[in-house]
TrEMBL record:
Span list, region CPSase: 1-177
Name of this chain's protein: Carbamoyl phosphate synthase small chain
Organism of derivation: Actinomadura sediminis
Gene name of this polypeptide: carA
Alphabetized PROSITE patterns for the sequence: GATASE_TYPE_1
Gene Ontology terms for molecular function: carbamoyl-phosphate synthase (glutamine-hydrolyzing) activity
Length: 371
């Protein structure tokens, strides 16, 4: 294996071996603690412009298959693992992860110290980084550090429109069609419309820059805003569209970036977490029932909202419905006088536990007018 370097913005350097494509890449350095689901993680568009390190020590064991991708390609800017599998073995596998990364030009690195890297990010926070291998590594760490420090930051980055669909498309209902949903694709994972389709929703997926008029022209029973990459404070176009949807009184459900856009539409702020939540075992408590779900997460930003009780918004009273039991951050919001709610985590799972899948049923009940 050829040598490679991982250079962090604060000057920390990890030496390792090239994995996947050789060359150079830049992004925000984050870690994911999922023990399974690397293919879903790699293809989640919310990871655009992020270099993802897996804390699970052995990655690639089951290779890649045609069923698990959450989008049409690998979306991460770079990939860091401890030890890549030498042999991929699974009845569904169509190839190895190393060759999939190589074929799609995704630069990765295998380093012995993914634990040291994770502890560093937990202490210092997510930061910019670069991976360099082949001819790109020849410049030496000091010159590479300068280039990392010149690369763009995640704060203020508007990335949703880069990963969104260019054209609208429809995911048909599975079985009898019960509802029409307009889903704004801010970086949508394919499992999300699928979870709705399973419940009888015909899902009209629209580009990130869809306006309220575009959404309402479909005369949907409900409106959905998806997960997605980047800083929600840079996606004012989505906030404007959602305000128009809320003004029209349509039932609304948002996931992750969609939760952040909902928060901003209600007049709340969003802020960057120190190192974020990325994994599949995060405990989230539903404050309305007391129930705790173990849930899938991928977020680096969060909504700043009062957690101690209802607060006023331009759309009437709202409340924080869910909090993370690890760090207390806001994981869900709802309006109290209108049918609109959102969560910061991933009820569609993919990868992860299915504890929260009932939220899709709640959205359907809202569209039925029974919730
Ligand atoms: N998965 C997502 O939708 C992520 C939302 C946002 N980009 C964040 O990092 O918080």
């Amino acid at each position: 294996m050829n040598p490679a370097l991982l250079v962090l913005e604060d000057g920390r350097v990890f030496h390792g071996a090239a994995y996947g494509a050789e060359g150079e890449t830049f992004g925000e350095m984050v870690f994911n603690t999922g023990m399974t689901g690397y293919q879903e993680t790699l293809t989640d568009p919310s990871y655009a412009r992020q270099i993802v390190a897996m804390t699970s020590p052995h990655i690639g064991n089951t290779g890649v298959n045609d069923e698990d991708p959450e989008s049409g390609r690998i979306q991460v800017a770079g990939y860091v693992v401890r030890e890549p599998a030498r042999v991929a073995s699974n009845w569904r596998a169509t190839g190895s992860l190393g060759s999939a990364l190589r074929d799609q030009g995704v630069v990765g690195i295998a380093i012995p110290g993914t634990r040291a890297l994770t502890r560093h990010l937990r202490d210092r926070g997510a930061m910019r980084a670069g991976i360099f291998s082949g001819a790109a590594a020849a410049a030496g760490a000091d010159a590479l550090l300068e280039r990392v420090r010149r690369s763009p930051s995640m704060e203020g980055a508007d990335l949703a429109r880069d990963v969104s669909t260019a054209e609208p498309y429809v995911v048909p209902a599975i079985g009898e069609r019960r509802f029409t949903v307009a889903a704004v694709d801010l970086g949508i994972k394919s499992m999300t419309p699928h979870r709705m389709a399973e419940r009888g929703c015909e899902v009209h997926v629209l580009p990130a820059t869809a306006t309220a008029a575009d959404v309402l022209a479909l005369n949907p029973d409900g409106v959905f805003f998806s997960n997605g990459p980047g800083d929600p404070s840079a996606a004012g176009y989505a906030v404007d569209a959602l305000r128009g949807v809320l003004d029209a009184g349509k039932p609304f459900f948002g996931i992750c970036f969609g939760n952040q856009i909902f928060g901003r539409a209600l007049g709340l702020g969003t802020y960057k977490l120190r190192f974020g939540h990325r994994g599949i075992n995060q405990p989230v408590q539903d404050r309305t029932t007391g129930k705790v779900d173990v849930s899938a997460h991928n977020h680096g930003f969060a909504v700043d909202a009062p957690v101690d009780g209802p607060f006023d918004t331009p759309y009437g009273r709202a409340e924080v419905t869910h909090v993370n039991l690890n760090d207390g951050c806001v994981e869900g919001l709802r309006l109290l006088d209108r049918p609109a709610f959102s969560v910061q985590y991933h009820p569609e799972a993919a990868a992860g536990p299915h504890d929260a899948s009932g939220l899709f049923d709640r959205f359907c009940e809202m569209m039925e007018g029974s919730a």
